[in-house]
Write the structure tokens for this entry.
Amino acid sequence: MSKKQITIPVFIPHSGCPHCCIFCNQWRVTGLSEKVTCDSVHKTIELYLSEAADTIGKVEIAFFGGSFTAIPHVEQIEYLKSVKPYIEKGVIESVRISTRPDYINRNILDVLKSYHVKTVELGVQSFSDRVLTASGRGHTSAHVIDAVSLLKEYGFRVGIQLMPGLPTDDYETSIQSAAEAVELFPDDVRIYPAVVLKDTEMEVLYNEKKFVPLTIEEAVDRCSIMYGMFIAKGINVIRMGLHPMDLSGGTVVAGPYHEALGFLIKSRYRRGILEKVVKDAAASNPGSGILSIILPDKMKEEYIGMKRENIFYLKDKYKLLKLNYTYGNIDEPQILD
Ligand code: SF4
């Protein structure tokens, strides 16, 4: 049996964060109301390890939710110390944390390094200072650039989280943010289109009709372009859209929340590639009405789309009677002669 790499998530909701971003209600998002203790960290680790004991390969522990390096120093050390015995025994290989770009400095990184933290994810959300201000982030894009540069100097793996669709954001600003993130060449990226959660400032704005979130269609369209920009440069996009587990009980008030949002975005991106092939073939053989294509076997679901929506879209747009498809061991879609 092949061994799989697992990440053990530990959520530290809003713990110690002195900010109040308008989209955030970490207590609600994580579904937790109690403080995370070292004891509960141990219990979480033991639970994960026991459930998949025979199949576990590399193990990473990830402190998500709050801003890890913004919590009191003593607490950071307690959490990191609680993981240390597992690292020394070789049971856990590495630690991942998420934090704010303005809580990264040499003192902080020295501590993280000494406790085997390997990956630091930064909640960046946008590279537009206008959007950051409107979202109450309390930092600027310059903080992001400095933080990434310092993290790389120390040899950390770097993650960047972006949130298209925040107040004052628009299509061009989202794409520009993705372009600036690409320039920094992070190891991982997460794209979370902004959703309105209950008990947030953004909910108030939404109710007062001062903020209109993206529709699912707009989010899919915009994020598919952003996704394409990252993967074109070999940058790993590890998640798009909130995981249902993050919500723990229906706290979304409005906005582009969909359980399969990541698939919808990838599928939209693949549609763009497929469309170029179909468009050229339709133009060079006008009036025939029938096209046959081979799709890369390993990504066939993404090319076809949910409920075959990409096939229906192209058939309709290029006025085809039939768009036949089969699969092959190829990297790009091809027309079948
Ligand atoms: S910095 Fe992070 S934890 Fe703090 S309010 Fe903003 S999103 Fe929430």
Observations:
- Confidence is low (pLDDT under 50) at residues 28-32.
- The chain has two domains: 4-187, 273-335.
